[in-house]
């Protein structure tokens, strides 16, 4: 598998020595900062700092899940990808992981809204890092009294108060 062939399906690559360059598909830019390095089988953008391999590229660029990206590569290179059913434990672990991501997203959204309503925090962050960067990373504000995630499960009333 050659990463440059995979990326070239989606971007016009220009060869520069041993690497390929293109405008980054993950952010707006006028000068190409997206590179594909065949001998390392990886891509990297010096502008937004996204990088990875062919599977990562497909997952990011085409919004594919890991299995879809593997199947796509299998079709491209004529490799049969065998599928198997998820075990009950695997499904439970996957669903637990997805649930935690949903909760984490809701909590982040809440603290992002807190940041956007609290002008002193915005002034400090924008002065220190710049508004563009703060917006790119979706800066949020958590109270200094916030404790690290507890190993104990959250109560149902907590989820209701978060709107879940």
Keyword list:
5-stranded antiparallel beta sheet; alpha+beta; 164 residues; flat; single chain
What's the end-to-end separation, in Å? 43 Å
Helix-strand pattern: HEEEEEHHHHHH
Strand order of the largest sheet: 1-2-3-4-5
Largest sheet: 5 strands, antiparallel
Q: Which whole number gives the mean pLDDT?
A: 87
Structural class: alpha+beta
- Poorly predicted parts: none
- The amount of helix comes to 40-55%
Outline the fold blueprint.
Layout: H1 3-8, E1 14-16, E2 19-22, E3 34-37, E4 42-45, E5 51-52, H2 54-61, H3 66-77, H4 88-117, H5 119-129, H6 131-136, H7 156-161
Antiparallel strand pairs: 1-2, 2-3, 3-4, 4-5
Helix pairs in contact: 2-3
Question: What would you say this structure looks like, in words?
Answer:
The chain has 164 residues and is of the alpha+beta class. Helix content is 48%, strand content 10%. It has seven helices and five strands, in the order H-E-E-E-E-E-H-H-H-H-H-H. It has helices spanning 3-8, 54-61, 66-77, 88-117, 119-129, 131-136, 156-161, and strands at residues 14-16, 19-22, 34-37, 42-45, 51-52. It has a five-stranded antiparallel β-sheet. Strand 4 (42-45) and strand 5 form a beta hairpin. The chain is flat, with a radius of gyration of 21 Å. The protein starts with a helix and ends with a helix. 7% of the residues are buried. The mean pLDDT is 87.
